[in-house]
Fold this protein.
Amino acid sequence: MAVQKPSTPKGTRDFGQIEMARRNYIFDTIRSVFRCFGFQQIETPAMENLSTLLGKYGEEGDKLLFRVLNSGDCFSGVDLENFRLEGDCFNSKALSLKVCEKGLRYDLTVPFARYVVQHQNDISFPFKRYQIQPVWRADRPQKGRYREFYQCDVDVIGSTSLLNELELVQMVDAVFGKLGIGVNIHINNRKLLTGFAEIAGAPDKVTDITVAIDKLDKICIEKVEEEMASKGLSANGIAVIRQILSIDGGFEAKRNAMKALFQGGSASGIVSETGLKGLDELDELFGLIDTAGVEAPVCLDLSLARGLNYYTGAIFEVKARDFEIGSICGGGRYDNLTGIFGLPGLSGVGISFGADRIYDVLSSLDLFPASLESATKLLFAVMGQEEMKYILPIASRLRQEGVAIEIYPEATKLRKQFEYAERRSIPFISINGSSEIEAGSVNIKNLSTGTQQSFPANDLPAILEFLK
Amino acid sequence: MAVQKPSTPKGTRDFGQIEMARRNYIFDTIRSVFRCFGFQQIETPAMENLSTLLGKYGEEGDKLLFRVLNSGDCFSGVDLENFRLEGDCFNSKALSLKVCEKGLRYDLTVPFARYVVQHQNDISFPFKRYQIQPVWRADRPQKGRYREFYQCDVDVIGSTSLLNELELVQMVDAVFGKLGIGVNIHINNRKLLTGFAEIAGAPDKVTDITVAIDKLDKICIEKVEEEMASKGLSANGIAVIRQILSIDGGFEAKRNAMKALFQGGSASGIVSETGLKGLDELDELFGLIDTAGVEAPVCLDLSLARGLNYYTGAIFEVKARDFEIGSICGGGRYDNLTGIFGLPGLSGVGISFGADRIYDVLSSLDLFPASLESATKLLFAVMGQEEMKYILPIASRLRQEGVAIEIYPEATKLRKQFEYAERRSIPFISINGSSEIEAGSVNIKNLSTGTQQSFPANDLPAILEFLK
């Protein structure tokens, strides 16, 4: 009987040893920075109750949730006929709610909000947490978009201080500095976007204006204006937005120009208190960034909008300087994340690192350390049972020093053992026969330079030096 | 509207920061040992095709699989009436196959077998991999049994050498040595169990005999004999098994006694070639263990059976010496794991570490390092905006040295900031006001000893020394 070669479900991936070494390098780097800033890791279950997840990601998001069938005889007792629309068409949405109570985590934000509310009495606020876990979305798989992927979120909740925004910027700076990726950090403030709509005379059109502006890096200003017009923004309003988007220069120039406009200096003459408040926040944040010192260029990007509606203050986006891939990290401040679960009044700010995109940048720019390829330092080739027994205590001592050692498990042809070392990128091989056993020595060869040397088996320091 | 306090699904858990620090400590320890032996990490997706999972864990296992509903309008086009048994009773099992193609991973073994078969052309055999990921089982939750829990598996596949068995024993020894848990390592060989049945004159009753013997640590020998009798084992057969189980002493004594029995010296006079082969393997393995040197006591445990039917050679079980909790690690050799996916002839051997039980042992014996509680070393208290700005560059420099630093984000009452340090187990606090700013100094207090000291802000070495 021919057995079908098995595969992973559509849109999901296996990670082999080299991919894992590279992914761990990214996560370990991020984690070490988080730790230096006092953030602590939590984990939540893969499955959440559907009542926790539904309605949090819009109608489209609800459709993309993976639902988990209740266990046991879950269809019995359900009057399936009630869900028949006509013919063999059923109301799958309603029926799935009858037979599924749980769904797979769609992001880390909603489970985090659920966590904070559930454990509020055990948490010391301000609560600084990070979380690195996979999420699942029933999206149509395509290049770079998967149905299972890792998110890497870091948030502070329970503090309105802009020091938190600063620390996120510092962490971004440190992470990409350590990874060797040159980045630009873009900052804006949701209150400015509200201000834009106000001085454009259309305070009800914040979302339309934001969505249109957000497309500026993909389409030209004329198309953006067309879109705003189609949403009913007046010609005067469009003129004000055009005025804003043409502002150029560094932070101070932009801040001063925006201040004049928010104070009534735009074509509409309208004053925006919210916009001015947003400018004050940016002023303080950029002052803190100056004081603390950040390597990466940080700019005020007036066209930065970010999709998520729950942001209420600073918004961030990080782009790689030498590789076109969109945002590799982003986030912002939200004022009411836990309100959906009945705990209002907790302000928070957070960012999320895009692990898959960071992987692609590092891979494309060849920035992964070469050492990640070779986990094992030394392979002991094996010529026979006696030789293996000779090697064992030597290998044990080297491993106790933390050196990654393999012993080839079979006494096969040396060529095969060499091939294994090569395929596994093991840099050193040791071959020991009867003459080494007699002499009590170890022979080690550096496979890249070809250098070969013999050591007394008990001269650990010399061996460790050679393996460096 | 009253909002219901949200919770996690039954049988699943959140892990808070201290639990995570402890769990990471366990996993990092295990990982570091795996790495020293040249094992490399892989990961597989949480969801597998049900065709990969079904039929691999017995009928009971199939029932415990969490199934994931197909996305979209998955009920339409399915003739639900076909699945009606009577009234509102449905054949949920058959119907679920119509609307679910995927299930959550039930263990790491089957996905590993699937991985090896799928990627066989890219793998360098012998393939030494480890995998640390959660698995899901729709078991009835109870104390110590969860619906989501981590498994931690390490296997070599593609080599029959007993060196692999040795290395697993060495890794067990190293892991529990590093964790400070005293353990006994029990070893047996499936071929001995086959031999038992053969010399008991009941070669077809291997499973019955194995299952009965396996209960020896819970019930007395008389009950075990009763069970074997009820399965149809003859009085003579039972006498042979009793003879085997009464064998006492160290490895050599047991080996010699068993050798005599397998050579025809038992009451039945039957010779067991399989049993003798098993003894040869054990002989070689114990010889290797002697040569390599292992700290933990290793014993031949003739009553060790382990449930899984796919084991064909050595079987292992590890028990904590100072805490009664059952096996905390176990495994064995299997000869045909990938055969289920059409790739026969690959022998492998592996073990699995029980993370939850190891956690319980460390916790009960108070063996977690105290340092895990305090991730952050130093909290800078904040008295006002000026003081915060004074602190920022100092904090940055300390973080660059890898010290975990927090700055309290608000200039609230000092008492509150002290409380925060205490609740978070932060060992040092630094309070700096106008006099420190004037003097260019930093004042740091050791919260456990009460010692307080001032340093010039740029004397990093002295500060680092005080924080040690």
